Amino acid sequence: MPIKIAALQMCSGIDPHRNVATMQRLVRDAAARGAIYVQTPEMTGAVQRDREGLRSVLATEDDDPVVRAAAALAGELGIHVHVGSTAIALADGRVANRGFLFGPDGERVCRYDKIHMFDVDLDNGESWRESAVYSPGAVARMATLPFARLGFTICYDLRFPELFKTQAQAGAEMISVPAAFTRQTGEAHWETLLRARAIENGVYIVAAAQAGRHEDGRETFGHSMIVDPWGRVLAAAGGTGEAVVLAEIDIAAVKAARDRIPNLRNGRSFTLETVEAGTRGGVGL
């Protein structure tokens, strides 16, 4: 049975309360247009590069304004609201890059901490060390919803196909990829990776993204999109500005794609051997 889902594109600033107001407006818009599952981007609550600035607005999970607002929206609108992620203060002084899913009753269904930390030096001079602030997660998560089995990832997790494959083999039919991709890496890889993960695993990919120039000076790529299990982009936003990316999906398409290309069933275990060539002047194996 087809359903409508939405990925929200935002340009979050440094003030969580302003970002919450934007999230509320966009979630209501998506729900009014028929979406029963709505996903927000990574770092919905604040995009803040300055560590002290970020810590000054951090809250625990129980007190976080994004978490409270999302739970209230889900209950009020009778839909699933998925906060792609927001920064959460932990008891040990570290920070979690944590996603939350709330059900139509307003109760939390699942939470997920980003596993892979974005520790990179780009050739345009950008340098990122997420592990200096954030505590990485260690548990992959999947939730069984009334309309689909949903797997969770966040941003840089997209570059680790084993996470997606593990969830798909466990029955995931949709996998979320909320993100704040940099402009440089997004231009090079964003759509290619999203479509590849959808094709490899025969799943819907839902990717809500941050977009544009942020208050802290960074620039994110945007192009939020929803991709079907055959790798087709069903709906997408541009590179800047807010957007509600809405698509009608049919979970039956997951089985159809996996029946056509049954790679998840056809995989085989193997060993790897390395042959040293030229050591005896002969021909390698």
What does this structure look like?
With 285 residues, the chain is an alpha/beta fold. It has one domain (3-266): 4-Layer Sandwich (Nitrilase/N-carbamoyl-D-aminoacid amidohydrolase), CATH 3.60.110. Helix content is 27%, strand content 26%. The protein has helices at residues 16-32, 51-57, 65-77, 161-169, 183-201, 252-260, 263-266, and strands at 3-9, 37-39, 80-89, 95-102, 108-113, 119-121, 127-129, 142-144, 149-152, 174-176, 204-207, 211-213, 219-221, 225-227, 233-236, 243-249. A 6-stranded mixed sheet has the order 5-4-3-2-1-16. A 6-stranded mixed sheet has the order 8-9-10-11-14-15, covered by helices on one side. Helix 1 runs parallel beside helix 3. The longest helix has 19 residues, at 183-201. The chain is globular and about 65 Å long.
Give me the secondary-structure topology.
Blueprint: E1 3-9, H1 16-32, E2 37-39, H2 51-57, H3 65-77, E3 80-89, E4 95-102, E5 108-113, E6 119-121, E7 127-129, E8 142-144, E9 149-152, H4 161-169, E10 174-176, H5 183-201, E11 204-207, E12 211-213, E13 219-221, E14 225-227, E15 233-236, E16 243-249, H6 252-260, H7 263-266
Parallel strand pairs: 1-2, 2-3, 9-10, 10-11
Antiparallel strand pairs: 1-16, 3-4, 4-5, 6-7, 8-9, 11-14, 12-13, 14-15
Helix pairs in contact: 1-3
Q: Number of DSSP strands?
A: 16
Largest sheet: 6 strands, mixed
Looking at CATH, the homologous superfamily is: Carbon-nitrogen hydrolase
Gross CATH architecture: 4-Layer Sandwich
* Rg, nearest Å: 20 Å
Weakly predicted, low-confidence segments:
none
Question: How many helical elements?
Answer: 7
Q: How many domains is the backbone divided into?
A: 1
By helix and strand content, what is the structural category? alpha/beta
| Distance separating the two termini | 53 Å
Summarize model confidence as the mean pLDDT: 94
Helix content: 25-40%
Oligomeric state as shown: single chain
Order of helices and strands: EHEHHEEEEEEEHEHEEEEEEHH
Approximate strand percentage: 25-35%
Overall outline: globular
CATH class, please? Answer: Alpha Beta
Q: Kindly identify the CATH topology.
A: Nitrilase/N-carbamoyl-D-aminoacid amidohydrolase
Widest β-sheet, arrangement of strands:
5-4-3-2-1-16
